[in-house]
Amino acid sequence: MAKKEIPYKIYLDEHEMPTSWYNVRADMKNKPAPLLNPGTHQPMTAEELGGVFCADLVAQELDNDTAYFPIPKEILDFYKMYRPSPLTRAYCLEKKLGTPAKIYYKFEGNNTSGSHKLNSAIAQAYYAKKQGLKGVTTETGAGQWGTALSMACAYLDLDCKVYMVKVSYEQKPFRREVMRTYGASVTPSPSMTTEVGKKILAEHPGTTGSLGCAISEAVEVAVSTPGYRYVLGSVLNQVLLHQSIIGLETKAALDKYDVKPDIIIGCAGGGSNLGGLISPFMGEKLRGEADYRIIAVEPASCPSFTRGVFAYDFADTGMVCPLAKMYTLGSGFIPAPNHAGGLRYHGMSPVLSQLYDDGLMEAVSVPQTKVFEAAEQFARVEGILPAPESAHAIRVAIDEALKCKETGEEKTIVFGLTGTGYFDMVAYEKFHDGQMDDYIPTDEELQEYFQKLPKVD
Amino acid sequence: MAKKEIPYKIYLDEHEMPTSWYNVRADMKNKPAPLLNPGTHQPMTAEELGGVFCADLVAQELDNDTAYFPIPKEILDFYKMYRPSPLTRAYCLEKKLGTPAKIYYKFEGNNTSGSHKLNSAIAQAYYAKKQGLKGVTTETGAGQWGTALSMACAYLDLDCKVYMVKVSYEQKPFRREVMRTYGASVTPSPSMTTEVGKKILAEHPGTTGSLGCAISEAVEVAVSTPGYRYVLGSVLNQVLLHQSIIGLETKAALDKYDVKPDIIIGCAGGGSNLGGLISPFMGEKLRGEADYRIIAVEPASCPSFTRGVFAYDFADTGMVCPLAKMYTLGSGFIPAPNHAGGLRYHGMSPVLSQLYDDGLMEAVSVPQTKVFEAAEQFARVEGILPAPESAHAIRVAIDEALKCKETGEEKTIVFGLTGTGYFDMVAYEKFHDGQMDDYIPTDEELQEYFQKLPKVD
């Protein structure tokens, strides 16, 4: 049977867009371990979590059984502003590489936040609004999540307080200004506005901050300010649920043209993009309906999957958050200052951690100069300047495509292109000027952090 | 008859994409005045123009009769990387304004150059490559055109030399870095690399440059370097021809849903976007098949249509280029330093100038603080951070929609959203901090420039 000719970009029609999120936990035999109360080491109850998160989001966080959550109409309407996102056949890259592989990428950068983060930001803001809250607090590193949340909050007239890792606040003033355009207040972290910030500053006066530290501050403000809750852009089960829209659209677009991927590749920091992209494919794999090679790509400078341990750990530096069982480098771990771009969180989504531990997916780590080489190669033929995060997936997609060139295999490769690099030009400049290196943590360093992991029976 | 429900975003399928450019000159009764040799004041011949521009582009430039030019397959393939661009129904903006007007915008910012400029960049680079040239030279102001040309040249393995207005070069290092990612060489203008640059620097040692000056340098390098030609991102007839893809797609998308616009609005600097957007609509108007209100929007600080004169003028500061008959503020005019964003060229496309002079379109000028107010309002509900250029059109679209609110008229408004503002955050910051003002040139200042216009019989 003649297959339909595949266009450069596959767009779903509005009526073909998914109307439910898919919860991969429902199909997991080994469920992700529950969050634990950091004091008692008992599973966090809905009531306890409700002090930090909105009620509806707590319900989503704890629900390991419901496979599909209908997307509220208000969120669907917002999605229609920037979704469906295109699934692009990388014809030009294939040609340039001379590979028989067929490469597709799901591009999530065509919205002002510049990444997929908006998919969960609008959901979390919506439930906060629905609950009658005044506002939300959060942290941001590279700034994609903070921008996304600012956009969602502006749309819903919700107050938005962002704690931005100090080094990013200073090096990325434009990101900060985008958030201001959307009406958010942005505070460099650690700051003197919180107890935990003061404590960290007293202990490490010159610190340029970390995600774990910014999380602690944002949580403190949320739990101590009436009418506020905390929201998080990655790691959590609820975030993977919202981000499943990426994978569902990808699968619907591929199905339209009867395409079955062999390999699915995503970059992995906390796991929001990877988890979302692979969800429906992993679901098929878990149900025994199909098989796919699924590859998580992480920076060699922050290698939680490939060099971390699978254990309960603190989600934040201030140790105010629940404990999560995940692949982790230890909550004190901060990537070396030479590390560009995001993917700098010390841990990994508990869902993905469990799937990885169960052998259902692979992980590789890549040095950043090789990542930027791939980024530039991709930009020049596919016309999109990728975020450094996304370029991790590009690197491995190109590597797999080159393997196909050697073997002559016509594999179908799908990868997630999470966003654009407009605010990462300092990193590109370093790369062009030969100022970028590939420092990776030593085993000794990592051991030091592992020894500080909390003891959980 | 029940009309089809209109989605948030109308995408054409790949097979619905236009395959020819439309040349509005073919339907103009009064053709645009020819370019003149600056020495003899005689119309430039194809041979004379061929020293500056590629042969195929010269043919397009001079052809006032052919209505449709088939788009070469190589260009169509490149278009498919980032086109069709979406035509978006601004449901959220309409709701926020409480207007009965129906607002649509054609968004050209979903490619890495961040604007519509890529549509002509790839065409001009393609014809240069076809002619066997080694490379092209150009100027760039805000950097959108330079970025677009760099992308096109990288794709075709063509050398690209960009002269960037010095003030932008210094204030927009990230733009510069994007061009470098695409392999272009970028020189701040005026520079010591050209005779005209040296002359301007000798006369005005502290100058921060202007578009007219950068054009002179780029032209000098093109005509004096074997295997090089000059390319330009706006003003020229050929550019409007290539940019007609914007209007053709817009019309095809509207036709799909039986929508007839009442008002079409575009920002106008040199006229590349406006000319492209309105082309097919203006064609219908010229042929008496339909009527539309067409509005050009320009900055109050650089008001060539609304306060300029319709006369032959130099296209560049160094006076090395042909003379063009256009609405102009005089080739020595440079907008005040407080002017943010593009739309800073002293003249206007000869095609649009003729159409405006013939009463076939209107023009309004708007102060920049009002432009940024509109930009922010738009960003908060439509989710796209607009370029300051594009925000000029947003301003007037909102104003027209608010008039409809008063009168109760359900007018259909279409405007061109040319690009994104990622590299304009310094301007947004000024706006947020109340540091932006609305200086406009006095009549006396303008008179001074008018008196220096060349005398052409």
What can you see in these coordinates?
- The structure is a homodimer of 457-residue chains.
- With 457 residues, chain A is α/β, with parallel strands linked by helices.
- Chain A has a domain at 87-112 and 243-446: Rossmann fold.
- Chain A has helices at 46-50, 55-62, 73-82, 91-97, 118-130, 144-156, 166-171, 173-181, 195-203, 211-224, 237-256, 272-286, 304-307, 350-357, 368-382, 388-407, 425-432, 443-450, and strands at 9-10, 20-22, 68-70, 87-89, 102-107, 135-140, 159-165, 185-189, 228-230, 263-267, 293-299, 309-314, 323-328, 362-366, 412-417.
- Chain A has a seven-stranded mixed sheet with strand order 1-4-5-15-10-11-14, with helices on both faces.
- In chain A, α6 (144-156) links the parallel β6 (135-140) and β7 (159-165).
- In chain A, α15 (368-382) packs across α16.
- Chain A starts with 8 loop residues before the first strand and ends in a 7-residue tail after the last helix.
- At the A-B interface, α3, α6, α8, α15 and α17 of A face α3, α6, α8, α15 and α17 of B.
